[in-house]
Structure formats: C-alpha cells, structure tokens
Amino acid sequence: MSFRKEPPFTHGTPTRNAVVLVNLGTPDAPTTPAVRRYLKEFLSDPRVVEIPRAIWWLILHLIILPFRSNKSAAKYATIWTKEGSPLKVHTQKQAILLRGLLGQRGHDSVNVVMAMRYGSPSLPEVLDQLKAENCDRIAILPAYPQYSGTTTGSISDAVFAHYAGVRNVPELRMIKHYHDHDGYIDALRDTVLAHWKINGRGDKLVMSFHGVPKRTLMLGDPYHCECHKTARLLAAKLGLSSEQYLVTFQSRFGKAEWLQPYTAPTLVQMAKDGLKRVDLICPGFTSDCLETLEEIAMEAKHDFEAAGGREFHYIPCLNESPTWIAGLADITEQHLLGWDTKATPAQRAAQPRSAQAEASTPRGREIDRL
Question: Where is this region: Disordered (predicted)?
Fold first, then answer.
C-alpha cells in the first residue's frame, strides 16, 4: 500500500489544533448537471441507502438520477441566493463566527474550518489542507445535533477512510452528538421565543426532524430517541405541555416505512381538523437548506393552507444566531480539554484527575506553550 506524500516539516514547529464543522453538502449550482453529481455522491453512500449495491446501482443510475436531478435542480433554484447555497453560506459563516468567539475566549491557536460530507469543500480536501498547516489535533464537529448512522456515522467513515491512506495520522476526536446540550437547547428556545415575540404564538408547535427508514431504529440507531429528547427538552424550556407540541419526520424517500408521523400528511390532517395556525421549527437542521426553505416553508405551507389552515409560520434554523454560536463554542471547548490550555477553571476542575496531572507534567507544560 502506498501512502500520500507528507508535507514538508521542520523540527520544532509547534503543532496546531483544528475544528472541522461538517455539514451534509449541497450542489455547486442549481443546475441539473451539478445536482446530478451531488445526488450521485450522496445516494451512493451505503450509510444513506442500505440496499444491496448491485440492485441499488440500477435504481440509482436508471431511475433516480435521470428523472430526479432536473426536478431537484428546479427546487434548488427557488432557494438559491446571490451568495450561493443557503446551507453552504450559513455553515461557512458559523465556522467563521465560531473561530472568532473561540479566539475571544482565549483559544487563539484553534483553527475552525468548514467541510461537506458530499460536494465541496470535501472532507479529504479540508483534512489535507489542515495537515499542510501542521494541525496535528483535529476535532470533527458534525452539524447534526442528533446522531444517526446515516449522517454522523457517514462522517466517521469518510474521516477514517481518508486517514487510511495517510502515514502520519493526527490525533482525532469525533463529536458524536449534542442533542441535549444546554447551549443547543437554549439556542432553539431563543429562536422560538424571538419568532413568537414578533409574530405571536400559534395553536401548536410542530418540531419536524429529517426522517430515516424505520428499520434503522429497529436495528439500533439512536436517532429517533435523540430527536424526541431534544423535543422534550425544548418544550420544557418553552413551558409547553405535551398537547401543545408535536414531533414529526419529513423528507421521506422511497416506498419503505420511515419514522412516523410524517410531517406533510400530519399538517394536512391538522388543517382538516380545524387547526387555524401552526408554527413549525426544524430542530435537527442547524442551517437553513433545501429541506427547510423549500420542503417546509414552501411546500408544507401550501399543503396546510390548501387543506383549510389559515396561518403557517416557519421558524428559521439557528443559522448565525448569537446564542447558537455561543452554544457551538461551549460544545467545542468541552472537546478541546487537554488539547488547548485556555480552559476555564470550571472546565479544568471537571477534567479527570489523570488529565489534570498530565497538565502539570513537563509534556503538559510544553503543550501550554503551543
């Protein structure tokens, strides 16, 4: 086996720490060829579609890509901005703001960059660039608060597959989830309250998460449970009873049963049952994207109103909200313990005794100077 060539290195050069904020991905443009390339990469991932490869190859290349690419491109065109894809724009801004806030908190040497699991900038491309910058400690921070093998698990696959071809592998930390982290829940609460302050409060709050096949739950994927825990914690922060909110799942694909209740049919039934106003938030998406701006804010709104609903209010994702950037910084700092010496006294006290002892050793003091 041959390994990639290592970048030039000078002994005595201090190593750096880095955080990679990884989101799902997006086409490079709202065009059929760009969307086709993106969908091919995305839907070829065995983590995303667990169907025998030979059968799925035929379905993907003979049915989905030829017919779905053009339709998806038209949908992307409805949400595309002058800056580009909303998901990419928001994720990039989050990375920049996170780096700035970490710097304000004293983590000056920590680099924060963005990567996409599918599309560009790709994870291998970003990881190679960090190696060239002498980053030898890298924390992978998924943009998905709730763990699923289809999302966070796929990021892990890509990271370790990349480093299988690298001779000098950096120290890695994989952040699995933060679905119940106070910084995340508080940011969701503030987003909802800010919307209610301006627009008033609806009759029911729907929390719509991205769907996954039901069989993944039966096989041990914790995603369903983590979504419901997020919802319970957010409802508690908002003072909502169990009758005042509902968890649903969107973006169903194919004919297999997915996690239920499904978002669109549920909204239609609510309208038919006489519900006049609904507020909807997508807690599992930290950046607005096709699934929130087109599928929910446009299609779901149309379905609800066509069925007799009077008002549909989509509550935007966390995006660059100050509370969310602070929450991201809190999450990141927890995973930098032992790497970056600018931890707060409370964080240092929370370290295991072994970690505190390490900081007092000659090696620990050497890290302090980096």
Answer: 343-370
Residue 70 vs residues 4, 27, 42: alpha-carbon distances, Å: 37, 12, 16
Whole-angstrom Cα distance, residue 240 to residue 138? 39
Question: What stretches of 273-345 adopt beta strand conformation (E)?
Answer: 277-281, 311-315
Residue 82 CB: number of other CB atoms within 10 A? 5
Q: Round to whole Å and give the CA distance between 90 and 88.
A: 6
**With contact defined as beta carbons under 8 Å apart, do 145 and 184 qualify?**
yes
What CATH number should be reported for the domain whose range is 182-315?
3.40.50.1400
Amino acid at the residue 358 = E
Q: Is the pLDDT of residue 3 over 50?
A: yes
Residue type, 122: S
- Measure the N-to-C terminal CA separation of the chain; round to a whole number of Å: 34
In terms of Cα–Cα distance, which of 78, 71, 141 is closest to 336?
A: 141
Give the tens place of pLDDT for each residue, 152-177. Answer: 999 999 999 999 999 999 999 999 99
| Domain boundaries along the sequence of the chain | 182-315
| pLDDT tens-digit map of 242-251 | 999 999 999 9
| Closest-CA residue to 25 (of 101, 128, 126, 175) | 126
Q: Report the C-alpha gap between 28 and 166 in whole angstroms.
A: 28
Q: Is residue 291 part of an annotated ligand binding site?
A: yes
Distance CA 86, CA 289 (A): 6
Closest CA to 324 of 86, 107, 97: 97
How do residues 85-99 score in pLDDT, each as one tens digit?
999 999 999 999 999
CB of 284 within 8 A of CB of 315? no
Could you tell me which residues are beta bridge partners of residue 249?
209, 262
DSSP per residue, 54-121: HHHHHHIIIIIHHHHHHHHHHHHHHH-BTTB-HHHHHHHHHHHHHHHHHHHTT-TTEEEEEEEEESSS
The CB-side HSE value for 210 (13 A sphere, CA atoms) comes to 20
Going across the sheet that includes 245-250, the strands are 245-250, 204-210, 277-281, 311-315
pTM: 0.91
